């Protein structure tokens, strides 16, 4: 565990070692059920084992974890932080609380799902299913659940046979393929993890036969007839594409959402598909790998569960293309590279190395087989009941997986990982990337999909000094205006906690937040801190993290050298980009010095100061560098950029010579985005007064710094100072400028820093134009339009060739010869949330983009 309390990136292996007391080299996985025989289905759970004998790995300590503290706003009453001891530590990996945290469902899991019934269909019997579930819930801080009865019909547990009767239940003695007991425990514990208030209906089939006497299919029909809203199927079998033979009864059930595991053997090949997951009326669920990462606002990294070797051959999420059936309506117009039904549709944690610790007390190989009856299990058998529970608490789902396509922009888009080697022309089926892909479908589950109480992501500390620190983290507004703040206190005295001033976020998606505490900490002291948030639906208190201040203040430390942007030529403006400082927020404002020398190694002479410099003929042939100094209470530190030059006396090709500049001053960004018009309010200080014990204390709010960035596929930083002026280049046409403003609030010796972001653009120019699409409902298929430059010249023609479920496919053609490029931005609330690379229009281009609620697609074309 890092000092922040949230593990840093790439910590799956360390979490495994901590949980089992074994090195990763000593651990492996094996299938709980053997390979499914013809006419039978195999369960798709994988258990973490010790290499060599294949015995399940024992957890070193008892599972103990509790979800974050949440409260619900009732009517118009005020919401306060739950009355519980502050400082609850982050949960163990492999626990229910960990999964709620990762998928932003903590508030939903606490208050939603009581009117829902999730059915689990498995083969054979598990005599201790109910008591094992209760043990799991108690260890994970989840509420106990009664057994259903004539008077208790919701938020209860019910176990029936494949005909819907409570007796007789099938035994587990005829289990020929392995331990379906573990599969059943995994499914029950996974649903309990995300929807502890749901009714859990377990339907036990007499066997895993799905051919001669289709017990499992009969059990699926029974689950639907008993009123299940979701039916979770953590089993299946590989077959040659033949949807007509495998479609019953899934194509007849319209009252429930049917979810099926995509398989654990990675991509099976072009001639095999996984049924029932591949059927168009079934939601196919893929698996991901999940790890904590305090350096990103979400607090987690997630990739496709990639192919690797294991005891049963290849392990990894399944995916595929079923060419025996037509392209489903919800995939029309989507680039799946499959002439049929491409799967998966959605994903959740499935890698056994980041799986769920379950409890199964059955003896021997029928249960966990460990000394304490706990074992770590994964596979798409985990991902499927997690997704079923997610549908229950969000109210999504339906007779088909169409909802996952309509709401794709609100899921966690998984962009890396591969589950095998696909044929040429079908690489999307095997490789995760932006948008839909085979391994993870439209993305992993995300509680931000629906409006509700706020969520907390990461909580971390950076730049820890003797008296100062910057706290960073992530907040999910979940569709509502949300306020957040930090609480911090000496580790030994939670009653002495201090709460920072509240700040606000809104919209969808996790929002990165930060606050800087200057002069508020004591040297050589350990502090705990937690991030709290509140909106009109309720509030949440995040897990506590910790930091320890050093005994003495240190001078500013450089972690990245300053840079110079612009062309080293007479008459052209050069701009300063400040160095990267550790704990820079409490330093003095940077002091810039422009220096020249006859050679690249010096001697250097200061010729100017400020954030920009325009060489004159006196600098022709000279080298230039930028020297930056920042200071704090311990002293100053000076660093210098790499030299540029020699300075040319003639303009360099490719730079604009029209003299147009954009100016950015500290404040809130405004402007239309035309070249030369991107201006912001000037820097300054606003003073107010607050009463303190009868006295009046001056409070000053000061804009300290605005950082400007040129943004294409990524954002390139420009000078970081109160005023930044930079000359527009040809490369800026059609781009955005991002302004990040830091505001410092001072009250006595306390100082807090908050940030805001504004966007200017796209920058207009005669050879650049843009087209905005804000509402796909108004975009008719076949519609054609043009993109014009600032002077009305047509640059490209755009035709809509497909729209479905908030996805649009555009055909773009250049109208004139020469070099023409096109790229796209997705905006939400005028902020850029995604951009594409540049595409050269040498021939007609087909561009497919997803457009979420409240998003605008800006298509930009430029002639070079």
Residue fraction in strands: 35-45%
**How widely separated are the two ends?**
51 Å
Q: If helices are DSSP runs of H or I spanning 4 or more residues, what is the number of helices? A: 9
Overall average pLDDT = 81
Q: Structural class per helix/strand content?
A: mainly beta
Show unreliable segments.
1-10, 75-84, 651-704, 720-724
Tally of DSSP β-strands: 54
Walk me through this protein's architecture.
- The chain contains nine helices and 54 strands.
- With 864 residues, it is mainly β.
- Strands 5, 6, 7, 8, 10, 12, 13 and 18 form an eight-stranded mixed sheet that branches. Strands 21, 22, 26, 40, 41, 42, 44 and 45 form an eight-stranded antiparallel sheet that branches. Strands 4, 23, 24, 25, 27, 28 and 29 form a seven-stranded antiparallel sheet that branches.
- Strand 6, helix 5 and strand 7 form a beta-alpha-beta unit.
- The N terminus is likely disordered.
Q: What structural keywords apply?
A:
8-stranded mixed β-sheet; 8-stranded antiparallel β-sheet
What's the quick description here?
The chain has 864 residues and is mostly beta strands. Strands 5, 6, 7, 8, 10, 12, 13 and 18 form an eight-stranded mixed β-sheet that branches. Strands 21, 22, 26, 40, 41, 42, 44 and 45 form an eight-stranded antiparallel β-sheet that branches. Strands 4, 23, 24, 25, 27, 28 and 29 form a seven-stranded antiparallel β-sheet that branches.
């Amino acid at each position: 565990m890092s000092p922040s309390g949230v593990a840093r990136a790439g910590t799956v292996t360390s979490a495994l070692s901590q949980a089992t007391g074994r090195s990763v080299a000593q651990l492996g996985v094996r299938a709980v059920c053997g390979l499914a025989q013809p006419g039978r289905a195999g369960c798709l759970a994988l258990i973490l084992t010790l290499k060599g004998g294949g015995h399940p790995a024992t957890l070193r300590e008892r599972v103990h974890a509790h979800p974050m503290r949440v409260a619900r706003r009732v009517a118009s009453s005020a919401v306060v932080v739950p009355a519980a001891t502050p400082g609850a530590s982050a949960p163990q990996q492999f626990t229910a609380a960990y999964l709620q945290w990762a998928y932003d469902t903590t508030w939903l899991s606490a208050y939603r799902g009581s009117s829902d019934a999730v059915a689990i269909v498995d083969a054979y019997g598990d005599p201790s299913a109910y008591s094992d579930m209760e043990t799991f819930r108690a260890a994970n801080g989840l509420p106990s659940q009664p057994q259903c009865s004539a008077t208790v019909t919701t938020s209860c547990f019910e176990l029936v046979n494949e005909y819907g009767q409570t007796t007789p239940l099938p035994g587990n003695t005829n289990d020929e393929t392995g331990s379906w007991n573990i599969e059943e425990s995994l499914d029950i514990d996974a649903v309990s993890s995300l929807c502890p208030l749901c009714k859990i209906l377990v339907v036990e089939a007499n066997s895993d036969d799905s051919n001669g006497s289709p017990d499992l299919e009969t059990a699926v029909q029974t689950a639907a007839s008993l009123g299940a809203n979701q039916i979770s199927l953590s089993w299946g079998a590989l077959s040659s594409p033949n949807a007509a033979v495998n479609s019953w009864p899934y194509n007849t059930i319209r009252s429930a959402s049917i979810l099926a595991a995509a398989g654990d053997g990675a991509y099976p090949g072009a001639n095999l598909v996984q049924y029932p997951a591949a059927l168009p009326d079934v939601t196919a669920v893929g698996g991901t790998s999940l790890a904590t990462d305090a350096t990103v606002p979400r607090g987690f990294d997630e990739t496709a569960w990639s192919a690797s070797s294991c005891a049963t051959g290849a392990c990894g999420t399944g995916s595929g293309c079923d060419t025996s059936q037509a392209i489903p309506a919800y995939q029309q117009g989507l680039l799946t590279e499959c002439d049929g039904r491409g799967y998966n549709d959605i994903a959740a944690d499935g890698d056994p190395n980041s799986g769920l610790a379950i409890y199964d007390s059955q003896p021997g190989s029928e249960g966990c087989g460990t000394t304490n009856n706990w074992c770590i299990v994964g596979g798409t058998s985990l991902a499927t009941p997690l997704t079923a529970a997610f549908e229950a608490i969000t109210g999504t789902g339906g007779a088909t997986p169409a909802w996952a396509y309509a709401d794709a922009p609100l899921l966690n888009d998984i962009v890396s990982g591969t589950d095998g080697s696909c044929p040429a022309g079908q690489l999307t089926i095997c490789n995760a990337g932006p948008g839909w892909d085979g391994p993870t479908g439209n993305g992993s589950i995300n509680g931000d999909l629906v409006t509700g109480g706020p969520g907390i992501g990461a909580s971390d500390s950076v730049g820890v000094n003797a008296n100062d620190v910057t706290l960073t983290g992530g907040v999910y507004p979940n569709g509502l205006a949300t306020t957040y703040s930090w609480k911090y206190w000496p580790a030994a005295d939670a009653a002495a906690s201090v709460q920072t001033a509240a700040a606000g976020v809104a919209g969808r998606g996790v929002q990165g937040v930060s606050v800087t505490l200057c002069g508020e900490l004591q040297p050589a002291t350990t502090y705990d801190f937690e991030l709290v948030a509140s909106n009109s639906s309720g509030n949440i208190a995040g897990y506590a993290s910790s930091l320890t201040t050093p005994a003495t203040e240190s001078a500013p430390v450089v972690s990245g050298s300053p840079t110079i942007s612009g062309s080293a030529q007479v008459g052209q403006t050069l701009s300063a980009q400040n160095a990267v400082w550790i704990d820079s927020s409490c330093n003095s404002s940077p002091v810039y010095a422009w220096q020249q020398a006859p050679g690249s190694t010096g001697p250097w002479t200061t010729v100017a100061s400020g954030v920009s410099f325009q060489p004159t003929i006196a600098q022709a042939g000279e080298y230039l560098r930028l020297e930056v100094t920042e200071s704090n209470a311990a002293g100053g530190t000076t660093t210098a950029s790499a030299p540029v030059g020699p300075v040319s006396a003639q303009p360099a090709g490719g730079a604009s010579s029209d003299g147009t500049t954009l100016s950015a001053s500290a404040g809130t960004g405004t402007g239309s985005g035309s070249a030369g018009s991107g201006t912001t309010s000037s820097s300054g200080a606003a003073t107010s007064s607050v009463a303190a014990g009868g006295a009046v204390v001056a409070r000053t709010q000061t804009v300290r710094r605005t950082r400007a960035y040129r943004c294409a596929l990524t954002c390139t930083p420009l000078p970081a100072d109160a005023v930044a002026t930079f000359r527009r280049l040809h490369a800026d046409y059609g781009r955005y400028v991002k302004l990040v403003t830091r505001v410092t609030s001072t009250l006595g010796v306390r100082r807090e820093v908050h940030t805001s972001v504004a966007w200017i653009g796209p920058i207009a120019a005669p050879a650049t134009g843009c087209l905005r699409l804000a509402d796909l409902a108004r975009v008719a298929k076949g519609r054609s339009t043009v993109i014009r430059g600032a002077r009305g010249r047509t640059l490209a023609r755009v035709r809509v060739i497909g729209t479905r479920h908030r996805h649009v496919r555009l055909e773009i053609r250049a109208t004139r010869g020469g070099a023409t490029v096109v790229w796209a931005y997705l905006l939400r609330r005028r902020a850029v949330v995604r951009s594409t690379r540049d595409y050269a229009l040498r021939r007609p281009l087909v561009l497919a983009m997803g457009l979420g609620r409240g998003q605008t697609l800006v298509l930009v074309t430029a002639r070079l």
